[in-house]
Amino acid sequence: MTTSSEILVINCGSSSLKFALLPKGSSEPLLSGLAECLGLADSRIIFKTAEGKKTESLNGGSHAEAMEALTRFMGEHEWLDSVVAIGHRIVHGGERFQASALITDEVLAGIEECCALAPLHNPGHLVGIRAAQKAFPKLPQVVVFDTAFHQTMPKPAYMYAVPQRFYKEYGVRRYGMHGTSHRFIAGETVAELKLDPANHGILIAHLGNGASASAVKNGKCMDTTMGMTPLEGLIMGTRSGDIDPAAVTFIARKEGLDLDGIDNLLNKQSGLLGISGVSSDCRALEEAAAEGNVDAQLALDMFAHRLARLLGGLATSLDRIDALVFTGGIGENSSLLREKTLNHMKVLGFAVDAAANERAVRGNTGVISQPGSTTALVMATNEEWMIAKDTADLAGI
Ligand code: ADP
Fold first, then answer.
1. Alpha-carbon distance 189 to 263, whole Å?
2. Nearest CA to ligand 1 atom 3
3. 37 C-alpha vs ligand 1 centroid, how far in Å?
4. Nearest partner of 324 among 346, 354, 302, 299, judged by Cα
5. pLDDT for 300-325, tens place per residue?
6. Do the Cβ atoms of 239 and 210 come closer than 8 Å?
7. What is the pTM of this model?
8. Is 208 labelled as part of a ligand binding site?
9. 121 CA to middle of ligand 1, Å?
10. Which residues does ligand 1 sit against, CB inside 6 Å?
11. What is the per-residue DSSP string for 75-106?
């Protein structure tokens, strides 16, 4: 039994629904979990609480059934009545959404309009919102956009050098992703290092299966590595990141690939997986590399080289670098990739403290640079907390 106010955070994809129930102001969820394979015969939902993990079959059910199972589970734990608002993660808010918003019919129409820019994500978010509205008709619901934090990028940073009519007619430009994480890390870094909120420069490397880096000046994003879609920029688990577009047309002609074939190649078969032929997973690659697999070693070296190269480029949007922060599953855990990256960045004054880098443990903020060098930090991101905070603020809770 609880008497506090809880925020339910929902991250809904086309076939999955992730959730976290956070007491207001807390970063420790009472409940978290995931419904997956929605709409398929083996759809299931996994609940994680302090008591442990529980998996239930959804018997082929989809988002509505997942939401029903979630509300039933919350009811059994007497959490249902203390939920005061719901926050939804939305991948793409286009140019329309510069910040989080309370859901209204107009906001829903705006998210619908952005479906063309994120056809694999936004339609799933809308399904999740409708299911949540049905399950919690009386509660305020808020949307938090992955793109919103990057809306402060200046025009020269977000335009592509193609005829401008593509921007004007279809919205073809760089938007950036992972904005909720970049915003969280920027705010925490200012607090942690006691920087002046109105005068600072921070580089952020959010490195998970998807990865992006950004340059934040005085609280505002000035540039980021992801583009119109999450394919641009860094090398990722299965995504190529930057590649000469002419190399893509060359490969397509050689292999007879159509547009879907190219999409699949660059999004699903490239990146760490494509280079190594071993895995998209950093842990598996580190193991293979330690055993002498040269392709895994190359994949890790390329990851670090690309990251250092793009961080160097991002730095040109700042007046100075107060800190470089590593976050995300790889950023928080891979001392190897942090060290490789920092060793590439001596020109910007970075010098890794090998012992501090090895000591940095997931969940704890830690400086990993030598005294007197440019500061590098490891910090845990918390997108759910950020979504819950925006939700509480906008819902006036
Ligand atoms: P997502 O982008 O899906 O949220 P995460 O942020 O969880 O992904 O990051 C997943 C990545 O983090 C994987 O490549 C995984 O191998 C890597 N990772 C997790 N733990 C470790 C570890 N101890 N050492 C190296 N890499 C790790």
1. 36
2. 209
3. 21
4. 346
5. 999 999 999 999 999 999 999 999 99
6. yes
7. 0.94
8. yes
9. 21
10. 208-210, 237, 281-283, 286, 328-330, 333-334
11. HHTT-TTTEEEEEEEES--TTT-SS-EE--HH
